Amino acid sequence: MDITIKTTEPKDFDQVIEVISLAFKTIPYSNHDEDEIVARLAAAGDLAVDLVAMAGDVVVGFIAASPVTIGGERCDWYGLGPVAVLPEYQRQGIGQQLIEKSLKDLIMMHAEGCVVVGEPAYYQRFGFKTSAMIYYPSTPDGYFLSLVFKQNNKRGVVRYHDAFYQ
Ligand SMILES: CC(C)(COP(=O)(O)OP(=O)(O)OC[C@H]1O[C@@H](n2cnc3c(N)ncnc32)[C@H](O)[C@@H]1OP(=O)(O)O)[C@@H](O)C(=O)NCCC(=O)NCCS
């Protein structure tokens, strides 16, 4: 199956919301508000990365990244996610393609680093590691990971965009 990764266009947006909602529907640790988070990020114009995976004209996957603060300060760090692939398209490498392209785009934007909350076994494949320097409250041990693109001197608590906390 040919999958194309591209920047989300306005005409894709309804499908994106549907893909996110379906992908997270059966995830026990989800608050099932990931679609709303993405809608709020889009409305705020703060989707630093906003990619869809297309099978022909059909959106089958989506990934976002948005700015985070560390220790209360704005910096060139980003939070990756949510990432979502339609259940019937999972385990075919689409998530991997979306994540790899997002990381390339963030590097092109001169990002200093990127954080993610998720399965360590999955994100470690892309170079994400746990860090003693930056942390995220209320996350199970090992599930908050970071990837440094440039020399890192940031320390403190990470806060995602306000869209994540409404
Ligand atoms: C996570 C997700 C985006 C991965 O997409 P995908 O296209 O299936 O991923 P890939 O095909 O690139 O990789 C699949 C591999 O990752 C592993 N993997 C996928 N999700 C995983 C998870 N939650 N925990 C551990 N491993 C996982 C699979 O075991 C698989 O490995 P294998 O091929 O060796 O068996 C997709 O499963 C999804 O939409 N899940 C629901 C939403 C979600 O949990 N998003 C992540 C949190 S933001």
How would you sum up this structure, described in words?
With 166 residues, the protein is of the alpha+beta class. It has one domain: Aminopeptidase (3-Layer(aba) Sandwich), CATH 3.40.630. 25% of the residues lie in helices and 32% in strands. It contains four helices and eight strands, in the order E-H-H-E-E-E-H-E-H-E-E-E. Strands 1, 2, 3, 4, 5, 6, 7 and 8 form an eight-stranded mixed beta sheet that branches. Strand 3 and strand 4 form a beta hairpin. Helix 1 (13-24) runs antiparallel to helix 2. The chain is globular and about 45 Å long. It starts with a strand and ends in a 7-residue tail after the last strand.
Q: Characteristics of this structure?
A:
166 residues, Aminopeptidase, eight-stranded mixed sheet, 8 strands, globular, binds coenzyme A
Integer-rounded radius of gyration: 15 Å
Number of domains: 1
Proper CATH architecture: 3-Layer(aba) Sandwich
How would a textbook summarize the main sheet? Answer: 8 strands, mixed
Percent of sequence in beta strands: 25-35%
Number of strands: 8
List all distinct small molecules, including ions and cofactors, that are bound in this structure: coenzyme A
In round numbers, the mean pLDDT is 96
Order of helices and strands: EHHEEEHEHEEE
Described by the principal axes of the CA atoms, the overall outline is: globular
CATH class: Alpha Beta
Helical/strand content category: alpha+beta
The name of the CATH superfamily reads Gcn5-related N-acetyltransferase (GNAT)
CA(first)-CA(last) distance: 38 Å
What is the CATH topology assignment? Aminopeptidase
| Helical stretch tally | 4
